[in-house]
Amino acid sequence: MSGPVVVKVGGSLLDRPELPGRLSSFLGEYRGDRVVVVCGGGRVVDALRDLDAVHGLGEGPSHALALRALDLTARVLACLVPGLDVVEDLAGLAPTWAVGRTPLLSPRRFLGDDDRSPDPLPHAWTTTSDAIAARLAVRLGAARLVLLKSAPPPAGAGIGEAARMGWVDPVFPRAVDGVPIVSYLNLREGSAVETTLGP
After folding, report:
1. Which of 65, 67, 181, 188 is the most buried (most CB within 10 A)?
2. Which CATH superfamily is domain 5-196 in?
3. Cβ atoms within 10 A of the Cβ of 55, count?
4. Do 49 and 63 contact (CB within 8 A), yes or no?
C-alpha cells in the first residue's frame, strides 16, 4: 500500500474481554503496513454526554473535555494490547514505526493543528472519533480507513446511509472524502470478515 492504514477502534469495544486478542490478531493481518490506531471514547465520553445533559456544559467545552477523554482511552487501549505506543502528534508516527511498534494517536494536539485549517471539524457532539479518524486518514493520505465496531452497519448501507442511521457520526461522510477505501469489521464477532463500506 502506498499510504498508511488508519484503524479506528470503537470505544464500545473497550469493555470486551476478547478485545486484546482480537485486536492483536487483526493488526497482525496488516503487519508490514504503516498502521495508526485511533481509539473511541466509549463509556468515558458517554459519561460526559450525561453531564452535559444535566449541567448544560455546552458543546464547545464538552468537545474539549471529550478530547481529553480520548487521551485516557488511548492509554487504556495501549495497556491492553501489546505493541501499541501512544503518540501525542503526527511527528511521533515515523519514530514509532521505525522501531517496529504501532502508534496509537491521542488526537488532541492533531485536532488543535487541524483547527487552523480552512475546514476544521465542528466542536460539537456531532463530531466523534469516527470523524476524527477519517480526518486523520485524509491528512495522512491513508490508503485505507478501517472501522472496528461492535456491530455491522445496516444491510446494504453506504457511508451516507450509515451516517443517517447513526452507525457513524453525521460529520463522517464529509470528513472521509478522499480516503480511497473505507472498510469495517464487527470485532464482537470472532468470525467476522473485513468488508468494504460503499459510498
Report:
1. 67
2. Acetylglutamate kinase-like (3.40.1160.10)
3. 9
4. no
Q: Which amino acid is at 46?
A: D
Cβ count within 10 A of residue 150: 14
Phi first, then psi: give them for residue 50, nearest 5 degrees: -65, -40
Task: Express each pLDDT in 157-194 by its tens digit.
Answer: 899 999 999 999 999 999 999 999 999 999 988 767 89
pTM of the entire predicted model: 0.95
**Nearest-10 crossing angle of helices 19-28, 59-80:** 80
Distance CA 112, CA 89 (A): 10
Confirm if 40 and 129 have CB atoms less than 8 A apart: yes
What does the block give as the cell for 78? 495501549
Rg (CA), the chain: 16
